[in-house]
Amino acid sequence: MDKTINQKAWFLVLPVFLVVAFSAVLPLMTVVNYSMQDTFGNNQFFWNGVGWFKELLDPSTDLGGRFLASLGRNLFFSAVILAIEVPLGIVVALSMPREGWSVAACLVILALPLLIPWNVVGTIWQIFGRPDIGLLGYVLNHLGFNYNYVANDVDAWVTVIVMDVWHWTSLVALLCYAGLKSIPDAYYQAAQIDGASRWAVFKAIQLPKMNRVLLIAVLLRFMDSFMIYTEPFVVTGGGPGNSTTFVSIELVKIALGQFDLGKAAALSLAYNLIILIVCWVFYTVMTNAGSERPVKEGAA
Amino acid sequence: MDSIAWMAWTWPTAIFFVLLACTLGMMTWLAIAYPEAERVGVLRIPTTRGDRLFVSLVLAAVIHLVWIGLVGTDPIFALPIGEGVEISSLWLGTVISLLSAVVIFRTV
C-alpha cells in the first residue's frame, strides 16, 4: 500500500528558515568573505586570498603566535576544569540525600550559582579576590600568602579556575544526580545481597549508569570552557600580560580592539572548525553509545 | 547591486558559496529522488549521505588549513594564459580533499 506523502508541512518551517538564514547563515558567509580580504576602514576592502590563514597558522607571525598561544591556554584551561569539575560533581552527587526535605534544599543551593549571569560571577570574584577590599584576597594576604591576581600569573589562573569550578560544578553534580536517581533500587538490593563494597557499587552500578549524563556534562563543560569569554575578561581582562587571554578574548581584541576584520574572520573560522569537530565527535558518540548495547545483547 | 556593496562580496567567495548551495540542492534532490537507508561503514557508526557530505566538508576544511600551515601556498606552475596565471600548490590540497570525499562516500 502506498503511503500518502504530504510535504506541505515544510512550509511551516519557512519562517524559522528565513530567521536562521538572516541571523546565522548570512553573517557566517560574511565572515568567510571577510577572511579573504583586508580593510583599512571606510568600508574599503582589498583581496588578500588565503594570506590571513597563512599568518594564522605560522607561529612566527604576530597573529599565528597569539592564536596558537591562546589556543594552548584554552585547551589547558578546559582540561584542568574538566579534571576538577567532573570528579567533584560525581562526589557531590553521590553525597546528596536521596529523599526528604533536604533534597529540595540541596537542589536549590546547587542551582544558585548556575542562575547567576557570567558577568556578575566575574564581578563577584573580581571583588572577592582583591587584596585591599576583597574577603578572599584580604584574608589570604593577612595569612601570609602573597596573593594578587592582577600581578601574578599563577594567582590569576587559580582565580579563574576556582571561579569556573564554583560556577559550574553544580551543573555536573545535578546531571549526575539525575543519572543516579534513575537507577532502580533492585540494583542496590542485588549488590547488597552479593555483599558488594561501596566502591564496587560505584564502579559496577553507579558509574556505568551515569555514563550518558557524564558524557553530556563533559560535552557541555568542554564547549562552555572552550568558548569562555566574560568571566576571565571581567576578572583579569586576559592579564597579567597575556597569561589568561583565551581564544575568544584574543578574537575580540583583534576584531574590535584593532579592527582587523580579515585576521579576526580567519581566526574565528579556525576556532569554529575546532568547535564543530568536537561537537560532531561528542554528538556521534552520544547518539551511538546507547544504540550499541542492544546489538551486543542481541548477539549474545 | 549597490545595496549590498557594503558586504564586499568577491567573485571567489561568491563562487564558493554558489558551489556549496548547488551541492546542498543536489543532496536534497537526491534525498527525494533516491531515498536511502543509513548504513554502517568503517567508522562503525550509522551514516546517511548527508552525514558523509558533512564529514567530507569538515575534512576538506581541515586538509586545506593543514596544507596552508605545513606546505604553504607557493605557485607550482603557471598556466599560459595572458601573462601566465599562477596555480597555487593549495589546489593540490583541494584535489586531496576531493579524493578523500570520494573515499568517505564509498567507505564511511
TrEMBL record, chain A:
Domain of life according to the entry: Bacteria
UniProt keywords, alphabetically: Membrane, Transmembrane, Transmembrane helix, Transport
InterPro entries per record: MetI-like (IPR000515), MetI-like_sf (IPR035906), Sugar_ABC_transporter (IPR052730)
PROSITE patterns tied to this protein: ABC_TM1
One Pfam family hit: BPD_transp_1
Entries under SUPFAM superfamilies matching the protein: MetI-like
Location of this chain's protein in the cell: Cell membrane
UniProt KW Transmembrane keyword: yes
Domain ABC transmembrane type-1: 71-282
CDD domains per UniProt: TM_PBP2
Main localization, broad class: membrane
Membrane topology value: Multi-pass membrane protein
One GO-annotated biological process of the protein: transmembrane transport
Gene3D superfamilies to which the protein is assigned, alphabetical: MetI-like
One GO cellular component term: plasma membrane
Transmembrane segments: 12-34, 75-95, 101-121, 156-180, 213-230, 265-286
Family statement drawn from the similarity comment of this UniProt entry: Belongs to the binding-protein-dependent transport system permease family.
Protein name: Sugar ABC transporter permease
UniProtKB/TrEMBL annotation, chain B:
Name listed for the protein in its UniProt record: DUF2160 domain-containing protein
The keyword Transmembrane helix is annotated on this UniProt entry: yes
Keywords: Membrane, Transmembrane, Transmembrane helix
Transmembrane regions listed in the UniProt entry: 6-32, 53-70, 90-107
Entry superkingdom: Bacteria
Lineage of origin: Bacteria, Pseudomonadati, Pseudomonadota, Alphaproteobacteria, Hyphomicrobiales
A Pfam family annotated for this UniProt entry: DUF2160
InterPro entries associated with the record: DUF2160_TM
